[in-house]
Amino acid sequence: MIDTDILPTPIWRDELDDEYAELTARLKDQVPCLEWSWHLPWIDAINRLKVQRGAMIMAHSYQSPEIFHGVADITGDSLALAQAAVTCDADLIVMCGVHFMAESAKILAPEKRVLIPDLDAGCSLASSITAADVVALRAQHPGVPVVSYVNTSAAVKAESDACCTSANAVEVVEAMGTDRVIFLPDRYLGAYVASKTAVELLLWHGRCEVHEKFTAQQARHARERFDAKLVAHPECPPEVWAEADFVGSTTAMGRWLAKESPSRVALITECSMADNLRSQFPHIEFIKPCNLCPHMQQITLSKIYACLRDLQHEVHVPTDTTTRAGRALTRMLQIGRQESA
What we know:
globular; Rossmann fold; 3 domains; four-stranded parallel sheet
């Protein structure tokens, strides 16, 4: 295993200024200029190496701008990345996100090689529930289907009837065709979904360590102090949604900004999301509050380079788990296609 702290730093070439002029201009307000001179040689080295490897780099919307804009071939929320894993032509995928995302890519495309730059990039939601917990819930509520948020392990997905993302959770729950559904693991997302459907949801106690920190007071401060519109993720506590002008998934947030075009907005979600949207909406002023996901921040340019260079940190999922979890993920994708049709 390679220690990325002692990797030789890619060499600066004067030509980089011209070759990446457009990217530099796009990110001038997102990345401090002193940091950019450090990032650019790594970006260049990764982009050259991924061509040599025939690799596809996927990055979640919570990745830092130098990764999201600098080296990623495909970007988006969990649903978009899951769909891309199925349809992309590359045999080698590098998932710049957290571990459950890399597992999902491997489950949906088992014939492909999936790498993650840091195996320890986890998720508080995925850690909040186990496959044994799901089995116990089924025993307590026989015949009630289980819908699992994609922020879960492969083993939990394998015990589920369907998966969902924050973008399609309501549609997936209603597609179960029952009066009651076990929804896990995020209690706040579950409460939001319950407010949008007549289906009774039996909720787990998991919470996202990033979104649960937001408060209604922070939201009100952003509105009153900066006259900003408030856009919140449904993983936030209910008192935060009550203050928001819009509540939705990461993709839905971008659509709302494109439609409403507010002069100022506070995205009540992970910080890098706002950083990455700034280049798409330069006319909008983005106001804090936001919180950084410590797990997403474990993915760095140097780790991506090491991952590609040495083809390390490959993600494996047992065959039986792949088969059963694949059914739950495929059901999610099928419902997503029906809704977008």
